Amino acid sequence: xxxxASRALGRRASRTTPRAPRxxxxxxxxxxxxxxxxLILTQLAFNxxxxxxxxxxxxxxxTAIGMAGWLVGFVLGLRTFSQQGLFVVGGxxxxxxxxxxxxxxxxxxxxxxxxxxxxAEATWSVIGAVLVIGFAAALFSPAxxxxxxxxxxxxxxxxxxxxxxxxxxxxxxxxxGAFVGPLLGxxxxxxxxxxxxLAGAAVFVxxxxxxxxxxxxxxPGRVRAPQRGGARVLPRDRRFLALCCAYGSYLLAYNQxxxxxxxxxxxxAGSQAPLSWLFALSSVLVVFxxxxxxGWAGDRLDLRRSMTAxxxxxxxxxxxxxxxxPAGWTGVAGLLPAAGFVVLLTVGQMLVVxxxxxxxxxxxxxxxxxxxxxxxxxxxxxIVLAGSAATGFLLDLGLPASVxxxxxxxxxxxxxTLLPRRGQEGSAx
Length: 429
Description:
Elements: H1 4-16, H2 25-31, H3 34-51, H4 57-64, H5 69-85, H6 87-97, H7 99-119, H8 123-157, H9 163-188, H10 193-214, H11 238-255, H12 260-269, H13 274-300, H14 303-324, H15 331-363, H16 369-395, H17 402-414
Helix pairs in contact: 3-8, 3-9, 3-10, 4-5, 5-8, 6-7, 6-8, 6-16, 7-8, 7-10, 8-9, 8-15, 8-16, 9-10, 9-13, 9-15, 11-15, 11-16, 12-15, 13-15, 14-15, 14-17, 15-16
Keywords: Cell membrane, Membrane, Transmembrane, Transmembrane helix, Transport
Region (Disordered): 1-22
Subcellular location: Cell membrane
């Protein structure tokens, strides 16, 4: 684990550190050192390049290539597995070889994968390109996320404010990229899918060039992992696995934007057209409110309480739909519970995500922050995989419409009990 002195310092900070002055986004950005700025801009660019292509992949596979529906689903599932499922592998490589080489390798693979996908026509070729694209993210995402978390801890230790504010800015950058990417991809699709893929590859060429030029070969304070142990330390770390389970419950709830919510919108509006407006609402809330919410939480809540508040807000979002569903409202009135769910889910996300990422450095063993960061995504991703299958089964059982939403509310609320207890987290939010 982190050394005892660091954990003691974090516990003292959670009890005695006075509130830092509230910072504007620009002031926060100016106070950051060049490395976290580079990593935050990297997240922005990653998501622009990724979302310029991937939202349009299913339609391309089904129409332009003519894949059957089940095969399209299989290919998309392979992409998710090669990314989320292998984050733990990327984390191990980061701890062993450092941030710079792993990020550069990920960028090279993403460039090759997007270029390959643009020209792929046979099924085997598409699958190969998708696996390369997914594994590229499994390399650079744990590298970038773990180093941002470590830099945020150093920023907090220097007295600038809570580490979650830096991680919130990282989330905002990712959300902006997720918003801009589909707009760029939609414009490029006016030419063809290959153009969108090549544009996505070009974004990663720029990222690669930026990191070759700006990323230091050795990052001060970054400790290489011990030769032995590796992933074998994870099954013994009950506190970290508890955090993974709680975070997986959040991700399962978030996944309902794509599973349960579309059915509810279809019922209320007669089509899924309002979904785009609800997704836009979520993005706008994150971009404009994330730093304010994180600042408020950082002044008042430790990491456990921040995650608790976020999970309970998300649970209340499910409860809103569960309570309103028996009324059978349609039209604008019928969409109000769905909008309430999206708002509560998004505000809960703003509390849960920065706190979970900020917690990892306190739980990680010395030199293994990459492994723990990757494992957080991989373990919680497995929970989402199993939970989504169970949710789909629940939705197909023909039960009263409010029951699945009520079950999801209870599951999310119970996740609070999984969080490591107060005094073990080692840091203020």
